[in-house]
């Protein structure tokens, strides 16, 4: 499938040159390899094949190696290790799902700039330049190489840090040496998770780049738009694409914290500040980029208040002269059918939109979905010291 498809004609003849922007996700060396071997197709992400394959690659050899080296004891230890489940059975599938959500949201975002004529006709050439640059970034080999290098530097740190010493199946009895299952966990299972996370991080960088370049265009926003963000309200839905990413990261973070609490290295009180900082960091990473449009929206609101305020005042003066000061000249017949009244009401509603306009595209429901994705995987951490039954009872009491 080509990177750009012609969109249907609009009522503007010049718009025939407008095109559906390229995908920010479908590209890069790793994607091309998957495409060549048939794991992804141009019109489908084929998650029904990719997710089971990734899970099998990260998990099944781990079970085999644990059983061969340590027998039933090590196999059982792997099967009950919460961290393994969080990384392999939750985080890896969620990061693959995130590729689909990001691809969908990013395409919709870029296309809406064209469909709603937010990009002016005289800015279309710059828009296409942005898309071409984005395609080169998407297909660049160096970022993915750097991701792999960074991942295995992290893997090297894990090998040296001894962070797996609390996993009996990963450490040989009586020594600090890793078992075959331990090596596989660090080099392959952890590697797959970190590579997928690194690719997501690179796509996030591309998204921020597109937002920054788009915010520099002379966009056609309007303060009277009913979304109360000058017509850019659709941007508030884009961070929802990263909810699976946040859920995946939180699953791994929560599993690590749970392990530390169970092993006496941390307490719940000691996790309050790390959890707060973690939540603030996640929200900032995925919501702050939308603030790039703040100067455009602040400028539009300032102009809108002045322009529509002046227009409202002029219309109000004319309405008063016509329907109060000169009322006897017009008579009182059929006042309900006079269009002046509805025109004044419509203009007042438009001015109200201008006054209520905000300079940041934000939607509460999106923030709530992020908070849920942040909190859910952390519940098992809390249940290490507070039974789930008591937590649910407290929530129930708080709602009544």
How does this structure look, described?
- The chain is mainly α and 400 residues long.
- The protein has 2 domains: 13-293 and 363-398, no CATH class; 301-356.
- It is built from 14 helices and no strands.
- Helix 2 (47-79) packs antiparallel against helix 3, helix 4 (124-139) packs antiparallel against helix 6 and helix 7 runs parallel beside helix 12 (364-375).
- The longest helix has 36 residues, at 180-215.
- The protein is elongated.
- It starts with 28 loop residues before the first helix and ends with a helix.
Strand tally is: 0
Residues in helices, as a percent range: 55-70%
Strand and helix order: HHHHHHHHHHHHHH
Low-pLDDT runs: 1-18
pLDDT averaged over residues: 84
**Beta strand %:** under 5%
Number of helical regions: 14
In short:
66% of the residues lie in helices and 0% in strands.
Task: Please specify the SSE layout and strand pairing.
Blueprint lengths: L28 H8 L10 H33 L2 H34 L8 H16 L2 H20 L18 H36 L27 H20 L9 H16 L6 H32 L1 H4 L8 H18 L7 H12 L3 H4 L5 H11 L2
Helix pairs in contact: 2-3, 2-6, 3-6, 3-7, 4-6, 5-6, 7-12, 9-11
List descriptors.
400 residues; mainly alpha; 2 domains; 14 helices; 0% strand; disordered N terminus
